[in-house]
User: What shape does this take?
Amino acid sequence: MAGVSVGTVDRVIHNRGEVSDITRNKVIRIIKDSHYVPDIVARTLASKKIYRFAVLFPRENPDSTFWSKPLAGVNKALKETGHYGIVGEKYLFDQFNRTSFKKQIDRIIHNEPDAVLIAPFYYEETVRLIENCSQRKIPYVFINSNFQDSSKLSFVGQDSKQSGYLAARLMSYSVEQGSRLLIINISKVLDNHKHILNRQTGFESFFRENTNHKIDILNHYIKDTDKNSISNSLNEIFSKKNEIKGVFVTNSKVYKIARFIEENRLKPVTLIGYDLTEENLQYVEKNIIDFLISQRPVEQGYGGIMTLFNHFVLNKRVKKEQHLPIDIITKENYKFYIKH
Amino acid sequence: MAGVSVGTVDRVIHNRGEVSDITRNKVIRIIKDSHYVPDIVARTLASKKIYRFAVLFPRENPDSTFWSKPLAGVNKALKETGHYGIVGEKYLFDQFNRTSFKKQIDRIIHNEPDAVLIAPFYYEETVRLIENCSQRKIPYVFINSNFQDSSKLSFVGQDSKQSGYLAARLMSYSVEQGSRLLIINISKVLDNHKHILNRQTGFESFFRENTNHKIDILNHYIKDTDKNSISNSLNEIFSKKNEIKGVFVTNSKVYKIARFIEENRLKPVTLIGYDLTEENLQYVEKNIIDFLISQRPVEQGYGGIMTLFNHFVLNKRVKKEQHLPIDIITKENYKFYIKH
DNA sequence: CTGAAAGCGCTTACAG
DNA sequence: CTGAAAGCGCTTACAG
Assistant: This one.
């Protein structure tokens, strides 16, 4: 239509220069007017281009099987997009070990991927990684825990404050006026903790804002997560304050608290925590954990890769904050969430 | 590798005959041994094959915006799979009008699509459609409401009985022993009602099976859904039985009950219903509806098309029953579900 | 700055 | 029953 060869058209589509302004404009005009859109199937077949996405996630660990889920989501996305030349390179670290995190970042920087998907556990190291990305002008996406940074391509995860707020609402149905509640923060390491603290903040705000619920809230931090330390730590609280009607655990370790409650026959106490792990589900089955808040872990990984795929292959504009739904899990519906 | 031309290889891959047993076997052997998998991108480009999927859904109607969601899911899937030659043809009917359903089926049968995605509203007509499909040997998928039929390719939707069971569990947190509960079934038409009845059955079984909840349950059917009829009908019940502590509405018309409760200041009564429609959300915002059960309407439509896509294009085996999660919606988390 | 040709991995007639 | 050739809509050198 423009009286030029496909080679020239290709040059203007991918604006890689070497075209006179006059032909370029002519071609652009025609593309617009005729609503031409490139056939990405043909493009993929012809270009044989490979996109290498680095995936920086914690390794699954004995304390929690949570991180196997985002990885499953990544693998699912990789399968779907493999036809388009998407390749994932996994860099798994030990979430309790800063050095391991740092090492994987070194490897990523060395291997020069085309983009990176990050679970940002340790602050300084994460900053180093994204500075390297900026320098190399490659996009990066955060998953699970957000990172204040205006240059990221996107974040895929949950609104953590709101999830705590929701937990409080659920709690409010089963505790009466004047009850005493306990918020437990249990973790060996306090890095990567902003979203955990947000959960607590959200929970507290609910009861502050809903004046018809006069509730006394205690905060408790447990650093040592072995069984004995937990017992000691909780025995003290529960003996001193014998009126605790509800417990909110701000992460996936809620099963450890459930075990304590079961062994000490402290029911009825409404227990709410996070994440659909096998360990937690045991206690959901036994009616000891009442609610789990789930953050769509599989979709987080899936969405992370798809975001990059949309950006590179489909040239779609992607949203900077992708908040996944806050799912409420009970004994009655958990089965349907397991594969998700 | 087999010493034959690509044409011959193609013939055995698509087993369209005209190949001697000896060469066929040789080729099959090599395909297996070398783990050859066809490049579907190249295949799509070369074949230019079009798959026409008929979509038989209710039209969106003033009483409920629910059905716009599955359609949105269909459109999303169509966008993603358009590159592979998937085309959707929509046949929308009036859900309260059997004739309209029948008419669209006639059109589908006449147009001979390659597959059909069905929201099975009226029984006999649906049977006629699937008999036609069987005859023409084309696959069909049910959405939203299941259909007892062993020849279907798949069903995508919710386990309706379990959703009622879950609703009862939620109800149990806020009603005391000996309370009186009301189940409301509100609908102009009673076809397509099996999954609605299942919800009721599920709700009732929970309280039957959990003996620590001694609860009196009333059932109430409302046929005329205009405001006055509802008022009359409910006034009677609420005046006779002044102790109703919770109401479970088995479909998306819960907002009509909410309106009645609001206007008659009957709170506190725990109100649970179905579906994240705009009409319902108003009353969630006002704390009149406590919980909505959502059935992932967008994913139903999306999943329906993707099931057919997987079947035709990816040659994947698909599951016969695809139960989507039963989402629990409250004022605190509904925003994150709206686009889903 | 521009065009012509080859090629990506398949499918589709057509000829034998 | 089998093969050779053209073509799907792009990209990629290469030549000028």
Summary: The domain at 46-157+297-323 of chain B is CATH 3.40.50.2300 (Rossmann fold).
